[in-house]
Design goal:
The protein is α/β, with parallel strands linked by helices and 308 residues long. It has 10 helices and 9 strands.
């Protein structure tokens, strides 16, 4: 009898310990920023892998077509090898005021966003819509967001490929342009872009023959606070020439959530030593860093010892 009571007592203790352990694990997982309820990961690579456009989950294999802001350019992009097509969206500067495809300083175009989407839905390409934050067109760009999202929502059933929505929402190193209002932009976009990748960046600048600061701790921490409540996957567009002095900050940022990736880009006049990008290639998962570089740069980068 005493033995039975002792066994029951031990069983009760074990059950209590098990309940406490499971409760603690449940709390730990629910408190983890990468396990937020309802959050989504970036499915861009999975999509192109399934299509056979890439051979593995390596974001460096994604190619980009830029500034597809005219009828000729979008047709060229659709016939080309790039998996992702980037274009700029503004509200036309005169009546009829509707979203158009144009890059500053232009405020008009031969193609509207609605017609652009009608062409794109016939392909399996991914798209990246860029809302610019230059001072002269800030109002036109922000005003274009709501009607653009409505048009995108109407076309979404037919869109096959990934959709990225890009905007600079915070000031960054050397940035002189005024960023889009983060709260206003995300309030408009987040509810209508549940399955999209939000490409959220900083305004930046780069000057030759001067010391260009990298992304500060304050900058990355402020961005993480903004992005933490979001459910969508987020990619941070980061300027390649500023990355050598920003490694600890970017490492910390990616550690905050598995929803986060980086998209490394370069300015046309930036001086970039692609060797400086190797620490990112070697220390982060290859699925978490996209490289939107000049063709000559990405070609050289892929031939460097230590790239693979």
């Amino acid at each position: 009898m005493r033995g039975n009571k002792r066994n029951v007592y031990i069983s009760c203790i074990c059950a209590v310990i098990l309940i406490i352990t499971l409760t603690w694990l449940s709390w730990l997982l629910s408190d983890s920023p990468s396990s937020a309820a309802g959050s989504m990961g970036d499915l861009t690579l999975d999509y192109f892998l399934k299509k056979g456009a890439i051979q593995g989950r390596d974001a460096a294999d994604i190619n980009w077509y830029h500034a597809a802001n005219s009828k000729d350019k979008i047709n060229e992009a659709l016939q080309g090898p790039a998996q992702m097509i980037e274009a700029d969206v503004l509200l036309r500067g005169h009546d009829p005021k509707e979203p158009i495809m144009a890059h500053p300083p232009h405020t008009d175009s031969d193609i509207t966003l609605q017609d652009w989407l009608r062409v794109v839905v016939n392909s399996d390409k991914g798209i990246k819509l860029d809302f610019k934050s230059l001072i002269l067109i800030l109002i036109l760009s922000l005003a274009a967001v709501k009607p653009s999202m409505a048009l995108l929502e109407a076309a979404r059933v037919q869109l096959e490929g990934p959709v990225w929505i890009n905007a600079d929402i915070l000031p960054g190193p050397g940035g002189r342009a005024t960023p889009l209002d983060a709260q206003a932009f995300l309030q408009t976009v987040a509810l209508r872009a549940e399955g999209d990748v939000l490409s959220l960046g900083w305004t930046t600048g780069w000057s030759p023959d001067t010391e260009n600061p990298g992304y500060s701790w304050e900058m990355v921490q402020q961005m993480e606070v903004v992005c933490r409540p979001l459910k969508q996957p987020v990619t941070f567009p980061v300027r390649a020439a500023l990355l050598p002095q920003s490694f600890p900050q970017m490492q910390w940022l990616l550690q905050q959530s598995d929803r986060y990736t980086l998209t490394v880009w370069t300015g046309q006049s930036d001086v970039l030593n692609v060797e400086d990008l190797l620490p990112y290639r070697q220390n982060f998962s290859k699925s978490r860093i996209y490289y939107d570089l000049l063709e000559s740069q990405i070609t050289k980068f892929k031939t460097l010892p230590g790239y693979t």
